[in-house]
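Q: I have 168 residues here and want to know how they pack in 3D. Can you give me a structure?
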Amino acid sequence: MPAPDRAEEIRGAFLDAVRAEGLSPEPMVEVAASSSGKIRQLFAALGQAGREVYLIRGAALVNLHIRSEPPGWWNILKTVKRDLDAMAKEFGVNCIYVLLIGRKDRHVADGYIVTGFDKAPFVRAPKGEETKYSINERQHLDTRALLLSVAKVAKVLASHRIAKADAP
């Protein structure tokens, strides 16, 4: 299966697993369309083409990155990190990076949940380049923190639910 098709399969399995946990992932481009003011501008920036950011109401903003096959290697745009950092600072929103690596069995993909570049599962800061951060699983992450299915990734993501009824 070509890499783009495989990435779509992984994305679909992940989003289905998130929904199975009782969460509703919404693409930021759709959320921006129904928002107003400064929040609309931030949501629109996060929903730009090439950015895979979802609002999971009551839990977090999630920036999804998919690698179709091992080894894990992802690029996070500096502008996305800047915008997510702004959302966390200005609105107290949880911002999470989900890094998935395809596998060839019924579990579809393994993954990491990242809440900050200075926190576990990072063991070493990602490499900063001009426009992006490059993350190499073997160099930057503690592989013992790898979650061994999209279902486990979704379950850990669901554990980030917040108690506020008015959460975005």
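Q: Anything worth noting?
A: The beta strands are 25-27, 53-56, 60-67, 73-77, 95-102, 109-114, 127-128, 132-136. Helices lie at 3-20, 28-33, 37-46, 78-91, 137-140, 150-158.
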